[in-house]
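User: Study the fold:
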Amino acid sequence: MLFVWFIYGLAFFVLGLVILVYPKKPSVFKLADDIWLIAGFGIVHGINEWLDMFLAIGKPFPPDILKIIRLATLVGSFLFLLRFGTKVISEKIKHRFIQVLPVVLLAIWVIIIIICKPRLLMGDIFGRYLLCVPGTLLTALGLFLQIPQFKEAKLPAATRNLRLAAIVFIFYMVFAGLFVKEASFFPASFLNYPLFMTLFHVPVQILRAVCAILLAYSNTKLLSIFRWETREILRRSELRCSTITSAAPIILFVQDRRSVITFIQGKGLELLGLESKEIIGRHILDVFPSVPQLDQDSQRALSGEEFVTSVTFQGITFECCYSPLRDKEGEVTDVIGVFLDITIKVKAQEEMDKYRRMIEKDARMVEIGTMGSVMAQQLDEPLSLTHLLLKRLLSDLGESSAPETITSNLRKSLSEVSQSIEIVDRFRSAAQISGQSIIAPVDIYQIAKRVMTVFAQSAKSVNLNIALKDMSFVPFMSMTAREIEQIFFILIQNAIDAADSNKKQKLIISCEFQDKQIELRFTDTCAYIEPERLQHIFEPFFTGEPDARGKNFDLAIAKEIIRTHDGSITAESRPDQGTTFRVILPVQHVH
């Protein structure tokens, strides 16, 4: 029997140890989260069987101490099984009683060993009745409940091992939970070790040991699903990596400390007319001799720096991400890099910059025109008055005997003033913003998006979030798309100028159509404008206190553009809320 106990304990101990040390996470199988409880049962129950062996030997500890420790390990091991079964099953049926069952049964067991004698014998027998029987049954049921997930994953071998483990637990319940030491009460007086020996002519411990070996075998084989899962994750990762590198315009590479390329792959190689097999094993400068920056960047990465840069060769621009790879001692051994083709992005940015310059140029031209128009208006009155006075003076002098020299100079001055008035009139006509008479559709939403893209970086730098609302229609109006762009450009820039980068702010641009006119609203949560400043905000030469809003004639320009199309612009501002600009423009119809 000593050998039986040794094998019996060894099988369970190995079962628990293998489960504990075997890598199981991350895993999609729910069993991975709870199987450690079976491992706890295996290790503790294996120790319990070895204690039986030491009790038979009589060494190395006093028998009374060994019996107490043995009873504790026996009960503890069955509690692990009971907890596993209730935990797995409670996830399916969501019943609270299942979750507290281990505590209830353990409490009943404690009461029994307190009131019944001999305590060690009662503890052994009722530990098997109250803890082993329900623990093994619930564990078997919990394992059966995992089978559908294994079938769904199409793992027939793992499904067979799982089913074998569940069945063996049921047999173990019979041999270890129902057949107990002989006692004077039922069923221990009937289902006991002597009866089993009489029926099968072998000690029950031998069949328990067989069950332990089968459980160790089936559960160890079952753990192979986690190794399969790890391989499958790696395979899928490699497949995804291969798919990405073969489909996306990138180059993934690794090079050693000598700047020799040890791995390279990606569709970006096709853009350069290269293949990975002709590059691997070569120095970076042998492959790209005309781009010394690549070797310089490699040396930066080998020095331990992680950075992002860009490089252009053969007309293609790549964004380059370098990262050093280190060994266990922290020394850089290799460099991994990713090159992403951003040629289209660079060209798009160039087009966006070109568009921004064009908008800014238009804005400056309109600003100059507005300034000229205002200046012409201001010059017109004094010149006209001077012209009238000179004309009247010349008329008065004509009736008297004034010297010819004086009248000649007056006529010459009058002629010069007349020419100045003509120049001012031509200048005003040239500077005047004229409205368009052609009715055409204007896609306000696309214009708003385009101008927002221009200001994306500027808005981000001042912590301003710009959002669009209710712009899903296209109005037919006499105003051109370029003039609408100017209005958006000026009012968005106005909000950015007023924004406080130390706090989050927002600008909501919305549009409504009603009564053959649209109303554009630019509502921000930026700086408040004082009433005395607000009433002059659209005046180009207002000399009040400096303010972030309305500088450089921008708002005056917007007002002039809108006025020439029979529209209007107003502003209102409230403390702690921000400012709203309302632009009213006439339209023919929308669609």
Remarks:
- The chain is about 60% helix and 15% strand.
